[in-house]
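We emphasize that the prediction below concerns an isolated chain of 682 residues; any contacts that depend on oligomerization or on bound cofactors are therefore not represented. The input was used exactly as deposited, without trimming of termini.
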Amino acid sequence: MKSQIAFAFLLTALLGCDGGVRSTEQGQFYCSSETFSFPALRIGESAERRVEIYNEGNGPLKLAYFKAEFSAGHTLMAADGPESSKWNVYYDESGEHFPQLLELEPGGTLVLLLSYKAQAQSAQTGQIEFETNDSKARNVKLTVSSHRQGAEIALEPHVITFGQVEGGEQAQEKLTLSNLGQDALQIESVHLNGSQDFSLTLNGQEFLGNEQLWKDPDGDGEPGLAANSSVELEVIYHPEVIGPDEAELSIRSSDAVQREIKVSIVGNSVESCISVRPNPLDFTGAALYSTVTKPVSIESCGLQPLTISRFYIEQAGDQTFWIDIDSPQAPLRLPGRTVGEAAPSESLFVNFVPNRAQAYAGKLVIESDAKLQPRFELPLSGEGLINDCPTARISSNNLQLAPGDFVELDGSRSFDEDGHIVRWEWSLVSHPEESRAQIAERYQNINQPNDSAVADDPSTPKAKFFVDAPGTYVFELRVSDDLGSGAESGACASSTARLNVEVKPNTEIWVQMLWSTPGDSDETDAYGTDIDLHLKKPGTAWKGDSLSVTDDPAKYSCSAQNRRPDWGEEGSANDPVLDLDDTNGAGPESIYIISPERASDMGGPYQVAAYYYRACADFDCREPYGASNVTIRVFLGGELNTEWQNTLESNHSWWVAGNLYWEGEGGRVESVDRIYSGTPAE
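Result of the prediction step, given as a token string:
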């Protein structure tokens, strides 16, 4: 009983339970995905997958009691936000390194990065578990998965090299036969072509020609090799006399993608040797005019270096196969293989584009100094399929919005008659020159959307966009189906759709500021200058760069330090709002008043100014960016009235741009254009 009480007390302390008294400020857990979804990888290949955890509540989100378990080859790291360059290792081969407690502030993000380097042809497994103080997501589990449907055969290694073995002696090497798919793998035939000094056994029984053993290789009483399982074969080398030997093991199975898989076996060879995989290379059904690209691995299986002098494709009729331009150029030289280590290799990439609904065949020819196979011919096959183009649909084709609004980009009405859509790619075709906004999957901080946009995920149909400037925006949606048909194929005009958005201020006063700093080489990154836009109430004094707790915000200008001052007693429509604040260069920033009070009733004009708050990437300001060129635009009644420009040279300088007179049915502006080294004088 004491241990249970202690555990409950610790849980309360870590996760913030309060004995039944609920705070109005709650952390809210949101996760970009519950799965780290990896593709199928060969041994030695690597991939990374991210999962982002967000706090969408208005109170702290606490994470505790982490535990994890992964198959070999996984490393888990974490960073505080997508822009952070500091990564902490949470899990690796040495074990777990989780903190006892993590706390995310409202709008905060924790990025989890799981990397995997394939060390065996077996299915990946793994999971992370933890608890949160969000009552709707108390226990969280993130898992690892691989997209493998049907049966999928794997043999590892792909090349077996025996060192020197004297005549009459015997050596053996392990060969792992795996099924990485979700259905049982049925073995149809096993052949060993070449030297008869090699043999193959499973659990001491001859595997070649033993159909009864093929029917149930894992001995579980069910036909075939079970899903996500493997067996270990033994390749035996027993030469009668010393001398070079070579053979090729071929296994045909129910794997629909790779019906035949081959392994090269070499013994007592000090010569160069070549092995190519996959062999053959099969491009299953591909949509007409779509490009399918597959890798081909060339391996050096001998003990001497391998020189590849030439490679090319031979095919009759339509030229549907070709070597991709990203492939390396001949001649290529690969070092000799070290016994017991992976074979040195180089990858080529072969493209297939069918233009008719028929079967195609060809061969990839590789010429080298390999003693036994100086001309290697890799069979190529593929089939063109008539595939209906996917149709892109957008929820609306024309919108009218105001600056500060969000566009909900929605392509979920898109469809494909004979398959399903797998990619929704949103792009911004045109936009106002002063706009800095980007298409996003979501925003980490809704108050600073331009600085907290999370890149759009093309595997989802929806995206978001924050309109930060008046003008016309044109968005384009491109969709692709599961056979690769889409806008990029050139034959699917219906796979694109466009959305036009007209943006115009819908308030009586709307002031926008932008700036450009020549000393900042990249004004789109997370570092840059910070210039603040100010709109001063008539009859009040300019305040310095901050407000103290004893100050009355209503007396001072609307700015980043005073975003929503209360200027009158007639309601919030008379009060200014800073709706967009930028802190890392270029802007824009904007302030609006829906229904301003008359300037004559308030004893003078509104006044517009810019303040150089920070000329550096950090507050120490050891390396200032220098002068910044500032533009201020004033819109009255939704129309651009005037534009002012000037240069602020350094930190804490002010530019009072002009006066604004609003008299109910309209307004006017007049230029002041004065620079101050400190707070503007009265």
